[in-house]
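Today's session is about reading a structure prediction critically. Students often jump straight to the picture, but the first step is always the sequence itself: look for stretches that repeat, for charged clusters, for runs of hydrophobic residues. Only then move on to the predicted structure, which in these notes is written as discrete structure tokens rather than atom positions. Here is the chain we will use throughout the hour.
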Amino acid sequence: MNGITINIDPVLVQVGGLALRWYSLSFAVGIAVAILLVTREAQRRGLATARVQSIALWAVVGGLLGARLFHVVDRLDYYLARPYEILMVYHGGLAIWGGLIVGGVAAFLAARKEGIAPLALADAATLGMIAGQMIGRIGCVINGDAYGGPTGLPWGLVYTHPGAMVPEALKGVPTHPYPVYELLWDAALLGLLLLLRRRSLPTGALFATYVAGYSLGRFLLTFVRQEAIVFWGLQQAQVIALAAFVLAIAGIVALTRPNRLKGTQRRSSMAARKR
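Below is the predicted structure for this chain, in token form.
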């Protein structure tokens, strides 16, 4: 049998009725690393770190709720038949787009309340967000919840453990390692963002680049997955990715247009003279 066998128990430790899964651990570590990086970047950019940390907590809560909601809606037939599983987040099943959208709205509202410019906060959060996503995908590799379709490629993942979340029809079958594909794409995007971070970009441009880059990767890579088709022959994640990509590109164009850049430079010059 070709491929890489994954025969790891998704449950890391179980004590009585309580279980710690690799999936939960990776997402917890991803969130912790994201908050740490966001705080450090906010400090580097001169933002109030205590306020940023408060905003981050709201973003995490909103992100988890949104991620679960989008996942449940995407597989509504399954959860209508098993409504008791809707709250079983620790088993897996968090849609990243839901987390980004709802978490982003929560962060925006919290930033306005804390008196921090949302676009400045978004730029500070960019590196932490992509790093957290990368770490979270490690749990998906073990859990088998973000599986790809069957493949004859030698690096296909073959899930054999009975606790893996791939459908029974795909157990023992080499499948595209979608989480690995996305992790590698995110790593390349992180490298690009680190390079752009050194440049003098308009506020919000770094975040818009992150959204555009992630959206493009998600749209292309999702073709190897087997999820429900929404319309236009595209899956839910691809429709959202397409819309996010268009909005992000429009944002980059608006932020970097000559008139806006001149206005930004003029305001910076005036502020320097006042100082």
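Discussion point for the tutorial: The first helix runs from residue 22 to 44.
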